[in-house]
Amino acid sequence: VQLQASGGGLVQPGGSLRLSCVGSGISISMFAMGWYRQAPGKQRELVAFITRSGATRYDSSIEGRFAISGDNANNAVHLQMNDLKPEDTATYYCNAYYGAKFDWGQGTQVTVSS
Hints:
114 residues; mainly beta; six-stranded mixed beta sheet; four-stranded antiparallel beta sheet; 0% helix
């Protein structure tokens, strides 16, 4: 099982990015999936998740700015990030929301800086 996150980069405050996570060896649609992030020196935290039925929940720090969506056709889950702030700087990962986690992989780096 592999979860490959991509789409990160360097963006100015107020900018946008769209992250994607593609699964191999796994059917993402069979799982509730979450996007997590880890900033330097901090613990990994959940920022958003989507259930199998498409219900979504967001951490209060990103609610209204980020949107998680499933993409069954491409076996992927996406995170649209708008109005990015410097405090959103972190490595972003996707993984299962419930239960045991798959290998985290390398994630994708998001840096918000002017």
